C-alpha cells in the first residue's frame, strides 16, 4: 500500500515538474517573441536612419563649395548676391542626390514594392523630403562650433554603424546579439543627434540675440547668410586687412 502511495506521489511530482518546466518554456518563448517583435519593429523603421545620416553628406558637399569658382561669372554673381538662389540651389542639389538613389517615399513600403532608379522615383515625395532635410540642415547651421561638431560626428557614426550592419546582415555575417546591439546604437545616436541639434539651435539663438540686441531679426537669422565675426575681427581669430591705396 505504501509502495503504491509513494509511486503515486512520485508520478504526481514528476507531472508537476513537467508542467512547471513547460510553463517556464512557454514564458521564455513569449518573452523571446516579444523581444524579437520589438527588434523587428526597430529594424523596420531603421530604413529611415540613412536619411538622417544624409545630412552628413550634405555638409561634406557644401563645405567643398570652392567648386563654384568653375562656374560662369554671372552664375557666380547670382549665387554670391542672392541668398534665395543659394537656398534653391541647395534644395535642388539634395533632390538630385536623392533621385540618383532612386528617390525616397515617406512610406518606405512604397519603395519596397518595386526597384527604383533616377528615372522612376517618387518625385513629389522626394521634393518634400528634400525640403525637410534642408530645413534640418539650416537649423544645424545655426549653431556654434562644439554642438555642430558633435551633431555631425554623431551622424557620421550613425552612418558607419548602420551601413556596416546592413553589409553584414545581407551576407549572414552577424549574430543576433551583435545585430540588436548595433540597431539599438543607431537609434541612440539618432536621438542624441536630434537633442544636440535643438540644443545648439536654441543656444545660438540666445547668442545672436545678445550680440545683435534690438537688431536681431528672425527672418534674416533663418534665411540670411552667415556673417562671421571670427573671420572679420582679430579678437575672434580672424584678421582685419586694410587695403592700401595704389595709383596705377
TrEMBL record:
Coiled coil: none annotated. Residues 1-12 have a biased composition (Polar residues). The keyword Nucleus does not apply. Keywords: Membrane, Transmembrane, Transmembrane helix. Residues 13-28 have a biased composition (Basic and acidic residues). The chain crosses the membrane at residues 48-71, 83-106, 118-138, 145-161, 181-202. Residues 1-32 are annotated as: Disordered. This is Uncharacterized protein.
Amino acid at each position: 500500500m505504501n509502495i503504491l502511495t509513494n509511486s503515486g506521489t512520485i508520478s504526481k511530482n514528476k507531472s508537476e515538474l513537467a508542467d512547471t518546466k513547460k510553463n517556464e518554456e512557454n514564458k521564455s518563448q513569449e518573452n523571446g517573441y516579444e523581444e524579437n517583435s520589438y527588434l523587428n519593429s526597430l529594424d523596420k523603421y531603421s530604413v529611415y536612419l540613412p536619411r538622417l545620416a544624409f545630412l552628413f553628406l550634405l555638409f561634406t558637399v557644401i563645405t567643398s563649395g570652392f567648386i563654384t569658382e568653375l562656374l560662369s561669372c554671372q552664375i557666380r554673381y547670382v549665387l554670391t548676391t542672392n541668398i534665395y538662389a543659394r537656398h534653391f540651389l541647395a534644395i535642388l542639389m539634395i533632390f538630385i542626390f536623392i533621385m540618383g538613389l532612386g528617390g525616397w517615399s515617406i512610406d518606405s513600403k512604397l519603395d519596397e514594392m518595386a526597384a527604383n532608379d533616377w528615372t522612376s522615383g517618387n518625385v513629389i515625395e522626394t521634393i518634400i523630403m528634400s525640403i525637410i532635410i534642408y530645413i534640418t540642415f539650416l537649423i544645424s547651421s545655426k549653431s556654434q562650433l562644439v554642438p555642430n561638431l558633435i551633431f555631425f560626428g554623431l551622424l557620421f557614426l550613425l552612418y558607419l554603424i548602420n551601413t556596416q550592419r546592413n553589409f553584414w546582415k545581407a551576407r549572414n555575417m552577424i549574430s543576433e546579439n551583435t545585430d540588436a546591439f548595433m540597431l539599438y546604437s543607431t537609434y541612440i545616436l539618432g536621438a542624441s543627434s536630434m537633442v544636440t541639434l535643438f540644443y545648439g539651435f536654441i543656444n545660438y539663438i540666445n547668442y545672436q540675440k545678445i550680440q545683435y540686441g534690438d537688431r536681431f531679426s528672425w527672418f534674416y537669422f533663418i534665411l540670411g547668410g552667415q556673417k562671421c565675426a571670427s573671420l572679420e575681427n582679430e579678437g575672434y581669430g580672424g584678421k582685419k586687412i586694410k587695403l592700401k591705396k595704389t595709383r596705377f
